[in-house]
Amino acid sequence: MDHIxxxxxxxxxxxxxxxxxxxxxxxxxxxxxxxxLAMTFRESEDVVHWINLDERSAAFFALGIAKxxxxxxxxxxxxxxxxxxxxxxxxxxxxSRVPLLVLTADRPHELRDVGAPQAIEQTNMxxxxxxxxxxxxxPEESMLPYVRKQAARxxxxxxxxxxxxxxxxxxxxxxxxxxxxxxxxxxxxRNLIPNVRKGKAxxxxxxxxxxxxxxxxxxxxxxxxxxxxxxxxxKSLTNLASRIGVPxxxxxxxxxRAGGHDKINVIENYDALLKSDEMKxxxxxxxxxxxxAMPVSKAYLQWVKKHxxxxxxxxxxxxxxxxxxxxxxxxxxxxxxxxFCDQIASQLEEGRTNTSWLSTWTHMxxxxxxxxxxxxxxxxxxxxxxxxxxxxxxxxxxxxxxxSMPIRDVDSFFMSSPKAITILANRGANGIDGVVSSALGVAxxxxxxxxxxxxxxxxxxxxxxxxxxxxxxxxTIIVINNDGGGIFSYxxxxxxxxxxxxxxxxPLGIDFQGVIEMYGGSHRRVIDWSSYxxxxxxxxxxxxxxxxxxxxxxxxxxxxxxxxxxxxAETILHGGIEK
Length: 579
Hints:
By secondary structure, the chain is an alpha/beta fold.
């Protein structure tokens, strides 16, 4: 069989198996060496293809699609540094447990390490940040069962145990253009490899009995839910907390603050409450039962580190992992979180359990909420930008949040809501690169998406806006522009260093309007609350890219937040609320 026929069959069987195994989307960055992969994907009507020119943006865009769908997404690029540009998103996908199939085209083996153009060492190039790597064999007709096996395994590896990225390197010889008139895959012997059947980990009867006794015998328990994306957990977890009679400290990315589930036990303002050392000492639980990753709140982490030796600590995780960065003695429970909650709750009496411990937390949470939501003065601030956003954001939509200060302001100011709002962020590696592209990947799935981020993060991924223009994706982007890195204002040397502004403040001095219009978007720059509320309302009536730029001051940032936290501590500690 000639080379073109072999190449066409080999790539067609590879892509066909990927699609059969569950790949619904592929993000392609154009290039020469990847022609057989790109053309074969493009030829298929059973996969949605996205063209994204910038490989770094493409990888984060794919990550956003996969994060929203919770299904593996394929990435295709040419050889050389194109593949290196995937690296930041691969790192994020690994730590945030997002399945990606990274398919990098490569020179054939005889052109490696001999000075051939656009050839770098691509074998194992992502190291321990991918769950599995395979350097694919060169196309041969006898290898069709082999190439299907590798495709099926790649998908299975990406979703097995904890989901994450896998890497298949695809060496290809010229000529590179397939000829799809040479085969009809439907009439060929496809030999599809069946998908793996996956069950959910559960507890045995003895474990259920033992954990039930621990939860009931320790009256002052605490459930904590950090970042997680399972939409089914909220109902099961709040039901469990209600039957035990304990509060749930709900991270903004827990999916517990918004939706139609019962929120009586949900505490949103724990970060503000735990800013006070005296409050940290008063609110010591008998145990902490945590779901999801470590919460965003630094105050919570410091609290656990300080008092962890006197608190029983449990972490429930569907996968075999050890996600507990506080360093305290922890018992890991490897069980599907929804199954865990339902198993324990089934052994408890139905109905609501009220305790003085729960009443204390809910009372304090109410006091803190009143202070955090108190009407702002005329000056624009990041906190109330979140408050008014939470009021305006459409029901059944997604809020994607940038790192540094935006996610912390959402933690502090996004309160419980009956709206069905999914809140997502790239909290695996907590980077500020690729945030725009990730949010656009979420928007590509069809749900109305809002992105909240800072000006530096926005600047980092302006290239990502191109696909919004090309695909007419509907997204509202709220840029908090304080002309620099606001989070660094909390550093101890923020006021004392002669070089702070140059090294940490990093003012951009950029007028974003021209860039936004270049990508076909609308731009609204707001400097007061009435114009901000109107801009949000108008934005949600539009299609395509809409950017609302909120101008704030870094000089007021720290003082604004500290005033709120101090007022909360003063109200609670001197208002007679005791444990």
